[in-house]
Each structure stands twice: as C-alpha cells, then as structure tokens.
Amino acid sequence: MIKGVANVWVPVEDVDRALDFYENTLGCSVVKRDGAWAEVKAGELNIGLNGREERGAGVEGGPVITFEPEGGIEETRRDLESRGVRFDADVSEHEWGKVATFKDSEGNDLQLYEPPSS
C-alpha cells in the first residue's frame, strides 16, 4: 500500500536554473546537489530535479506539483508574480477548492491549491 509521497522527480533542462527557481523564487530549501541531480524540500515533500536525458522519457511533459500556499492563494499568487512568475489564467474555483497554474523555469506545470473554506 502507498503511505504517501516520498519524492517527486521533475525533469529539467538546466539544473542550476531550476535550483535557482525552486530555492529563490518558491522558497524551497536545497537538500542535495550532485551533477545533473538536485533535491529540494517543500514542506515535507522532497522534489528531485533530474536533468533530462537526450533520449527516452521526459522529452515533453512531466509531473505536476501542487503547492499549498502559505497565505491565501491570491496573496501567494501576487507574491510569485512580483518575483517574475507568470500565471496564464485566473485562479479557477471549483467545489473542491481553488487552483492557480504556473510554470517553473523549465516549463513544468506547477499549481497553487487552496481547499474550500468550509
């Protein structure tokens, strides 16, 4: 059985650029760096930043990581926008919560998620 998420691996083109984004823009802490591999910590989640291989999986697409905003979703969105993050759409509201989608420095989809208030 699955207990939870141990790691999420994200394919990246440039590990240095990705580390800069995850550490300095999103505020994650760097856990490890080894060549074309790095790990950052976002709360209790380890995210592996894995250099894309020339062939095979990871040429297009990749995982979507959903982050819980520290403040409200709108406040966090404004903060990220002030750091140069571009959101291509407004915050979408659903009966299961609110979502704001953006991309990291490598073109991977990321989201902010806020559960419903009641």
> What are the segments in which pLDDT stays under 50 over at least 5 consecutive residues?
none
Strand segment count: 8
β-sheet strand percentage: 35-45%
What is the string of SSEs from the N terminus onward? EHEEEEHEEE
Class computed from helices, strands and strand pairing: alpha/beta
Average pLDDT score: 84
- Which of globular, elongated, flat, extended, rod-shaped describes the shape? globular
Cα radius of gyration in angstroms: 15 Å
The N- and C-terminal alpha carbons lie at a distance of 30 Å
Q: How many H/I helical runs?
A: 2
Domain VOC: 4-115
Protein name: Glyoxalase-like domain
InterPro entries: Anthracycline_SecMetBiosynth, Glyas_Bleomycin-R_OHBP_Dase, Glyas_Fos-R_dOase_dom, VOC_core
